[in-house]
Amino acid sequence: MGDLQGHEFRGNQWTAQGAVSPREAVARVQSMPSGVFGRASFPVPFPVDSAAAQTLGDVGPPKIEDVPIHTLVATQSDVSRSGVMHKLASEVDRKEPIDVVRRGGKNYIWDGHHRAVASAALGERTIRASVLEGK
After folding, report:
1. Which residue of 6, 68, 77, 90 pairs with 20 in a disulfide if CB–CB is 3.0 to 4.6 A?
2. Are 126 and 64 in contact (CB under 8 A)?
3. Tens digit of each residue's pLDDT (9 = 90 or more) over 62-105
4. pLDDT at position 40, please?
C-alpha cells in the first residue's frame, strides 16, 4: 500500500500520526468511544452520508485502484468492534478490495467499512478498492 502514515482518532476523524503495528492498531480500536449499539460498536472515522446508499444505483464497470483513505465517505454510521478486530487479525481479509462508488467527486464506501476502519487504524494512507463510477 505504499507509504504508510498512522492516524489518531480525534472527534470523529482520524488524524495522521505515523505508521503503527497491528498490536497498536488493536489497542487503538479497543479505546474507541462506544457507538449507537453500545460497546459492541463505535462511530466510523470518516464523514457519513447514510442517505447516499439509497441513491448510488446506476454505475459503470468496476476498476481496481488504491483510494486515499482520507477521501472515503461512509454510508453507515457505526462498525462493530469485533468486525474491525477480525480484519486487523487477518491480513488476507484486509487485502480484499472494498467496494466504492465514486459520484460527484466523492468515494462512497458501498461494502468494506470494517476493512476501511482497520486500514485507517493501522495508519495506511490508501486502501485497495473496486471503484464503480456513478452516473
Report:
1. 6
2. no
3. 899 999 998 999 988 888 888 888 888 887 777 889 999 898 88
4. 64
CA distance 128 to 131: 9
**Domains within the chain, CATH numbers bracketed:** 7-134 (3.90.1530.10)
Grid coordinates in use for 88? Answer: 486487523
Out of 20-29, 31-40, 109-118, the most confident range is 109-118
Q: If DSSP states are collapsed to H, E and C, what string results for the chain? A: CCCCCCEEEECCEEEECCCCCHHHHHHHHHCCCCECCECCEEECCCCECHHHHHCCCCEEEEEEEEEEHHHEEECCCEEEHHHHHHHHHCHHHHHCCEEEEEECCEEEEEECHHHHHHHHHHCCCEEEEEEEEEC
